[in-house]
Amino acid sequence: MSGHNALDDVETDRSQLAKKIISAAFYALSSFMITVVNKTVLTTYAFPSYQVLGLGQMLATILVLWCGRYLRIVQFPPLDTGVARRIWPLPLIYMGNMATGLGGTKELSLPMFTALRRFSILMTMLLERLVLGVRASWLVQTSVLAMVGGALMAAADDVTFSYTGYTLVLLNDAFTAANGVYMKKKLESKELGKYGLMYYNALFMIFPAGLLAWRTGDLEHSAAYPNWGNALFLVQFLMSCVMGFVLSYSVMLCTQYNSALTTTIIGCLKNILVTYLGMVIGGDYVYSFLNFVGLNISVLASLLYTYVTFKRKPPTSHLLLNEANAKVDTV
């Protein structure tokens, strides 16, 4: 009987591993797609406001989840006085993450943006230690430092240096780290569920974000944007809005089945494609030897981190299977 229990544990372990890999791959693909689409909208089509684009992504999230609950496809608690307390501080972090992320995309070349995003891994590792009490192994710490070192090398010779862009990306790193760690904490509490967290995040922040866009004149500038009649631009804009919802969902899944640190590193690992494609599709990458070498070091360190992360723990499933086989042989 114990042998059968061990085999059942093996199947459960394999199923859990499959969920981790699939959710991570889904997040990587979603993150890659929205980065490219946002870059096209903000740079290629020169859309004047990343804040208005973010508003579109919030609105899409609210509409999709409201319709899903109305059709009984998804479920999450109704709005009451306790929702704000249960979700805080995620809405504020969500808005800061969205605003600084889109702003950094516009201010920097795409390869430089992805290199500086490596700092979010270091910040996540530190926050996991402080908030969740999770201590990374020395191999993980070495990989993270190598990633940050490569990013620093690339930034040291960045011939398109933008003080505003660098500030926005580093702030985005901090918001990303806080979002991942606190999201993991909220998901473990299971008070609102992933759909509730997504819905109320967007619902609570769409009005302050809209007010900010109005006060800064972004709504007026966006309304006067000349390409609203361009069908190709509209497709890209709507795709960005929908991908905002898809990205939020993929982040929730990846964080639920993995750690906050793993979610952050997957978000940076997908930038392997973004880094090299950005040299072609963005049209704003200026080559220099030190920058190119630094970018590649950061990419290789990302791959090393992924290997270390999935190999650092003993393969429990193999141990259970060997134990089960040994007991069967004994019988």
Automatic annotation (TrEMBL):
It is a multi-pass membrane protein. Keywords: Membrane, Sugar transport, Transmembrane, Transmembrane helix, Transport. Residues 25-305 form the Sugar phosphate transporter domain. InterPro entries: Sugar_P_trans_dom, TPT_transporter. It is found in: Membrane. GO terms for cellular component: membrane. It holds the Pfam family TPT. The chain crosses the membrane at residues 21-38, 50-71, 138-156, 162-183, 195-214, 234-253, 260-279, 285-308. This is UDP-sugar transporter UST74c. It comes from Papilio xuthus (Asian swallowtail butterfly). The lineage of its organism: Eukaryota, Metazoa, Ecdysozoa, Arthropoda, Hexapoda.
